[in-house]
Amino acid sequence: MAETSLYVHRATRSPAEAANWDRRQVILNNLRSVAGRAYPRVRGISREKSWLAFEILLPFLSTSAFVFVYRALKAPPEYIGFVVLGGAMTAFWLNVVWMMAAQLYWDKDQGNLELFFAAPMDVMSVLFGMAIGGLVMSSTRAAAVLLIATVLYGVQFAVSQWFLLLLVFFLTLSALYGMGMALSSLFLMWGREAWHLTQLMVEPVYFISGLNFPVGRLGMIGALAIATIPLAVGLDAMRQLAFATGPGPTGTPPPAVEALILVVMTVVFIWVARLMLRSLERRARQEGRLSARGR
Amino acid sequence: MTATSSMTAAAKARENAGRFDPSRVPDTDTGHLWRSFLTAARLGWLMEANWTDPVLFFIYSVAKPLASTFILVFMLEVIGGAAGRDFRGFVVLGSALWAFVISGMSGLAQSILEDRERYRMLKYLYVSPSDFIVVLLGRGVARIGVGAMGALITLIVGIVVLGIRFDIGAVDWPLLVVVMIGGLASIVAFGIVMAAVCMQTRQEAWSYPEAAAGALFLVVGAVFPLSVLPAAAQVLGLLNPLTWWLGGARQALFPGGQTSIGGPGSVFAEVFGHDRPTSGEIVVALLLTGALVTLASSLIFRVSDRRAKEQGLIDRTTGT
């Protein structure tokens, strides 16, 4: 009786013919790879209890510190909302830096990278799986910070265009994770500097992205951040949309234009990620050094 | 007597035969502990810095604390404008000193994670004749050194670029020395607690120490006076040695400047009957709370250590 599965679903006359997969097999295999890579991250949410304290409660307290800075300065209430929104979005940024950009490097150290390159799949599936799993993980933290802080600090949102706000939010996430996918190959090539790069990509990026204040106040640096960092442009667009009665124009483009910037970023980052991964894969196979640990 | 003599003779016989004698391993004398500490500190420093260009390493080391300070300075500028500049010294000093806390808390914890998950050497370090906690402390020292560099550069930038008024002749040096020693000891104690936590957790605990430091940031008056917090949070802050360390450092470096601990309507003012703590009160409170945290950290580490041995966590590797 003929066996039917993803790998053997048609009768073939030789192993060589069996190895020649059709389009359906390739797509299903890659979808399974995406699901397989996302699985440990999604399941990890419920398996590691310390995560609740260290990924939700403590970052919320950290965000609260900036709320109290504004309270000490008697700032308008919209600024408290800015901090809360920024605090929620940091969950995604930290996930992109630690669990996307640096992930292939950690995988190399753990010995998984060579398995990824050897497995019969597109390595982009691994990156998509990492992104989807990480996104689910971070969403819970972001939602918790946003919800608790909104209730506790009485944040008043004034949303004028819900559809555009949601669109900008999802575009920000896709651009952020696209950037993480592109950075993962770069971090892998930079090797041992990956750790320090992750450090360099937290507070300095928070600063130039205007995490706790309107990015437009940074002048030329802010404009550069809007052109290159999804966190900066996404946060600015979401603030304009979520606090429509806020502190007025800050010199940044309107949300619709920023949404277009995010679309361009998403496409470019994913294309760059694919390009770099192809190059890495070729080097890994030709030189056989890329997956060597400790480099 | 006869038995002791025969055991000594047996040990000598083994020594003569060139065999390993566990009873001769010098595991408790001070010289041995000091050597272990220095070796671990040197190893930590080499792991931190030996692979990169010194200029690049310098940029990595100071970018983080400088950026944190600039975030706060811009928040002041956006809201307070010129009026907010009086608050700059308060914010810059708190933010600069916080670099010590982050590096101190993360240094020990991350040495556990690095050695267990990346280099897979923790099990060998653990069974080596060196005291495990001494090795960890040594490894953590390197990162505290990097934090110190970041703090110093941030202060210099604050004075030179941001125009903070600072009079070196007015510095209360004895108070500064005492609070810095007490503060660093407390930071190391918090680092030991984080190391104990990371012995129990999975690989993705890399960011846990910073998350814990971020939470402490809220209640210690690092960048705003405690008096703006609810009373219960102020009490938590007053029980924390880092609050007294930061308050003491502010009092020593900027005598007569804004206090982070007291102020009108604060819990401190209500309990002690005056607006700002004296130097003596700061030192006593720092020593008392620091001693409590140190004892607690020692206890927590022992419990974690025992559980790690029982559960086989010393050589566990994880990942998502």
Write a structural description:
The complex is a heterodimer of chains A (295) and B (320). Chain A is an all-alpha fold. Chain A has one domain (20-286). Helix content of chain A is 74%, strand content 0%. Chain A has 13 helices and no strands. Chain A is elongated and about 75 Å long. The N and C termini of chain A lie far apart (50 Å). Chain B is an all-alpha fold and 320 residues long. Chain B has one domain. Chain B contains twelve helices and no strands. Chain B has helices at residues 2-16, 30-49, 54-80, 88-118, 122-127, 132-160, 173-200, 208-219, 231-238, 241-253, 267-272, 279-311. The longest helix of chain B is centred in the C-terminal third of the chain and has 33 residues, at 279-311. In chain B, 47% of the residues are buried. The mean pLDDT of chain B is 86. The interface between A and B is large, with 50 and 50 residues.
